[in-house]
Design goal:
The structure holds two protein chains of two kinds. Chain A is an alpha+beta fold. Chain A has two domains: about 35 residues; about 100 residues, Beta Barrel (OB fold (Dihydrolipoamide Acetyltransferase, E2P)). Chain A has three helices and seven strands; from the N terminus they run H-E-H-E-E-E-E-E-E-H. Chain A is elongated, with a radius of gyration of 22 Å. The N and C termini of chain A lie far apart (about 75 Å). The C terminus of chain A is likely disordered. Chain B is an alpha+beta fold. Among the domains of chain B are: about 240 residues, no CATH class; about 100 residues. In chain B, strands 3, 4, 5, 6, 7 and 8 form a six-stranded antiparallel beta sheet that branches. In chain B, strands 2-11-10-9 form a four-stranded antiparallel beta sheet. The longest helix of chain B is centred in the first third of the chain and has 31 residues. The C terminus of chain B is likely disordered. The chains are: A alpha+beta, B alpha+beta.
């Protein structure tokens, strides 16, 4: 091989390699991307059966129920138009509170209960996840007051 | 009064940064000695005034001056003095002050060390640093001013976010920013080289120590952040692929590529334009990171309150800096021709692969970090990508990179030379396979392929890095600092790989609800919950649980995790209890009182997790040691570039 051919082979090899890496990354991306839905969209049946997604909204006041002495907890998430029951059996984050914003990852089961495998609550209390804030605005609810002792 | 003085100082510092930019660039362009001689004084003055501004803010925090809005929002009279000082960078405005201060320190350091550089070159580099400084000061004063008063003054402050009330708060942000901001020096030098139209590769030699230093700080800062998140966020992860973590990780990946490509440019005069592009990219990614963090466009655990005006300003600044640098690059890069060539099996080729794979890895992280933003902007739906995307995608470029590291360090410059070390390398690889598989299958009993692959790669990198120093030692040769540094950095990488491999594959984690006296089993360990008691701290109250861990019936640890409620913000905070050992951590965190006398608990056993942070620390130390090398330190003097081949023997 002449130096020129060798160089071209090197470049071709790099292009192929980077291409494969890109394709694999895109594949992983397609399979693992998670969309966000609010309770109204869930009620309207926009979520495909078995699809894993993120559910966001406010934890309904008085909806948190525990089986005493166990991790199992049930609560409802609302955008003040519709609400979705959620079931979870892991440790809840520190800022999880009735009336606070929350985002949960998981799937709907056959009876329409959202089975969460992860629940996130922001740890800055002034902060509302932007997507939740937008859902609430869309649903016509007034933006919730900033929390904390201000 | 003091704060007004600080405010005024910051305005003066901005004016001086403007002067530094103008006289630095225009003076060099006109080759006007008098103009250029203004620059060092502007740098010194800017540093002085920034120091006064910072001192005025620290003073306000220490003396609980709640008539200053920023102090009132982020401090409290009950907050211990230590955190009152660290609270300076606890929120958006103060972290920008930190950015500016650190940039000012880098600028002064560079100005002091640049005496031996060509006059116009140093002047241009300082001019570019002046532009960056000016931009950030303008940003601070117009959109995020920490010097404003509150009328009427608040009776007491709103307190520092309890998550930030931790020792790491004092060290993590300054060290991380030192790394982040340090890439601005490499960027300024690259711009100066392009403005000068230099055809030689001397600038690469001048750039090396600065880049390595910034990289070492960044490595340290990221590791500290990871360690902090592990024990303070309360849930025991060491890396979350959070947008802000990614924002610091992307410059690190590109910076790592940069220090390797700089080696090639310095030694062999190759990859000139690529090196310039990488230094522009590393700094651009630092700026992008700042944009992502400050504008609140991405949902992250680090987000400060979102403010569109701030986002627009940084985006504009970002476009100006990157656009300017890329235009300069488009203008100058075609004039940079490399005369020398190299073979497919040579150190240059291996370093080229290193660069490509690191840049691909950075692109993978970049894509995943920005995808939610892009999809949202284009109205394609609000999506998120997390670990399931990042982990496998990141491994695609990383596994080949790790496999090449152990081989590449034995390749010679220009051509081949692997044949000489082939025997040794094969023996090392064999040993690594035996060790790695023994670790994965024997010690940790992980049948998965990935655990074995990771263990073998980690062992191979460590062993292969040690071959050369051992060989030199046996032959009675001296060990130059550059080789010691390189060896340390690669050994650190190998240890890091071992840590990640086993934390990912052999961690045992359980969420349980336990009443007093009940226990849960994790592998060989039994965690028994023994109830707890109420506690009271200076600015919080809470509950402390007691978990006794036994192994084979023998008590080996007592963990006392806490749940705290801070008075002022009313926020609840988990303090995990961790018993660290060199080869494993035992971890317990309290969830909440779940009724019937039970608490929910998160229990973890994480093998080798310390290797992750110590590995990163050793990498950083390797960088600092390599800088002690005479050949790199002499970099500051304007000597002839190393001719290919003459230096090649020094680093086989």
């Amino acid at each position: 091989m002449t130096p020129r051919q060798r160089r071209m082979a090197l470049v071709a090899g790099i292009v192929v390699g980077v291409g494969i890496a890109g394709a694999l990354a895109l594949q992983a991306f397609r399979q693992n991307v998670m969309f966000y839905f609010d309770p109204s969209q869930v009620a309207a049946g926009q979520v495909q059966a078995g699809q894993r997604f993120r559910l966001g909204g406010m934890v309904v006041q008085g909806s948190v129920q525990r089986v005493p002495g166990s991790l199992q907890v049930r609560f409802a998430v609302t955008d003040f138009r519709h609400s979705v029951p959620v079931q979870y059996d892991n440790v809840l984050p520190d800022l999880f509170k009735e009336g606070n914003g929350v985002v949960a990852h998981g799937r709907l089961n056959e009876s329409g209960v959202f089975v969460a495998d992860e629940v996130l609550a922001k740890h800055d209390e002034k902060y509302m996840p932007p997507e939740v804030a937008r859902s609430l605005k869309k649903a016509g609810a007034a933006a919730p007051p900033a929390g904390g002792a201000q | 009064m003091f704060v007004e003085l600080g405010h005024f100082s910051m305005i003066l510092a901005m004016a001086l940064a403007g002067a530094q930019a103008f006289f630095g660039l225009a003076g060099a362009a006109r080759r006007d000695e008098r103009w250029m001689s203004v620059v060092p004084s502007a740098v010194a003055g800017q540093f002085l005034f920034v120091a006064v501004a910072v001192a005025s803010l620290v003073n306000a925090f220490v003396h609980n001056d709640f008539s200053v809005r920023y102090v009132a929002e982020n401090s409290n009279s009950a907050l211990p003095l230590f955190y009152r000082v660290a609270a300076l960078w606890g929120a958006h405005e103060g972290s920008l002050v930190l950015w500016i201060t650190i940039l000012s320190i880098w600028t002064v350091t560079f100005a002091l060390a640049s005496g031996r550089l060509p006059r116009t070159f140093a002047s241009r580099a300082l001019g570019v640093l002046g532009i960056i400084s000016f931009g950030f000061m303008l940003f601070l004063l117009t959109t995020s001013n920490p010097f404003l008063r509150l009328v009427p003054p608040a009776p007491d402050g709103r307190d520092l976010n309890p998550l930030l009330q931790d020792f790491a708060m004092a060290v993590h942000p300054p060290i991380l920013y030192t790394g982040y901001v340090g890439f601005s020096v490499a960027f300024a030098l690259a711009c100066a080289a392009m403005l000068e139209g230099r055809r030689d590769a001397l600038w690469a030699r001048w750039m090396r120590p600065w880049t390595v230093m910034a990289w070492a700080f960044l490595s340290c800062g990221i590791a500290l952040g990871s360690w902090w998140a592990y024990y303070e966020l309360g849930w025991g992860g060491y890396w979350f692929w959070d947008p802000v973590e990614n924002a610091s990780f992307m410059p690190w990946l590109v910076g790592t590529a940069l220090i390797h490509s700089l080696a090639v440019t310095d030694k062999r005069g190759l990859f000139k334009s690529w090196t310039l592009l990488l230094s522009v990219a590393a700094f651009s990614l630092s700026l992008l990171g700042t944009f992502l963090v400050r504008s609140g466009v991405l949902v992250s655990v680090h987000s400060f309150a979102a403010d569109p005006a701030r986002g627009v300003f940084i985006l504009g600044f970002l476009i100006l800096m990157i656009g300017g640098a890329l235009a300069l690059y488009a203008w100058r890069a075609p004039t940079l021709v490399s005369e020398a060539g190299f073979e497919l099996v040579s150190r240059e080729a291996f370093l080229l692969f290193n660069n490509i794979l690191l840049v691909v890895a950075a692109a993978v992280v970049f894509g995943g970090t920005l995808a939610p933003l892009i999809s949202d902007t284009l109205g394609l739906g609000t999506l998120s990508v997390g670990k399931p995307y990042f982990n496998p995608s990141f491994l695609v470029p990383m596994l080949p990179l790790l496999a090449l590291v152990g081989v590449g360090i034995h390749a010679r410059w220009r051509r081949g030379g692997l044949a000489q070390s082939a025997g040794r390398l094969l023996a090392t690889a064999g040993l690594a396979v035996v060790l790695g598989v023994a670790l994965a299958l024997g010690v940790y009993a992980r049948p998965g392929v990935l655990a074995s692959v990771g263990a073998v790669l980690g062992c191979f990198i460590v062993l292969s890095s040690l071959l050369d120093p051992i060989d030199r030692w046996r032959r009675g040769l001296t060990l130059p600092a550059s080789i010691v540094g390189m060896t340390l950095a690669h050994v650190g990488l190998g240890l890091f790989v071992l840590g990640v491999t086993f934390v990912e594959s052999a961690t045992i984690e359980r969420d349980v609800a336990l009443a007093s006296g009940q226990s849960a089993t994790l592998g060989a360990y039994t965690f028994r919950y023994e109830g707890g008691q109420a506690i009271e701290g200076p600015n919080y109250d809470g509950f402390r649980g007691r978990v006794v861990v036994t192994q084979g019936g023998r008590e080996i640890a007592t963990l006392e995790p806490e749940k705290r409620r801070y008075y002022v913000q009313g926020s609840v905070q988990t303090e995990a209890a961790i018993q660290p050992r060199w080869n494993r951590d035992l971890f317990a965190a309290l969830g909440e009182d779940v009724g019937a006398g039970a608490w929910s608990l998160r229990l973890q056993y994480r093998p080798l997790i310390r290797f992750i942070w110590f590995g990163a620390l050793i990498m950083a130390i390797g960088g600092v040691v390599a800088m002690r090398d005479r050949r790199i330190r002499l970099a500051e003097s304007a000597t002839e570039p190393a001719v290919a081949g003459r230096e090649a023997g020094a680093q086989p």
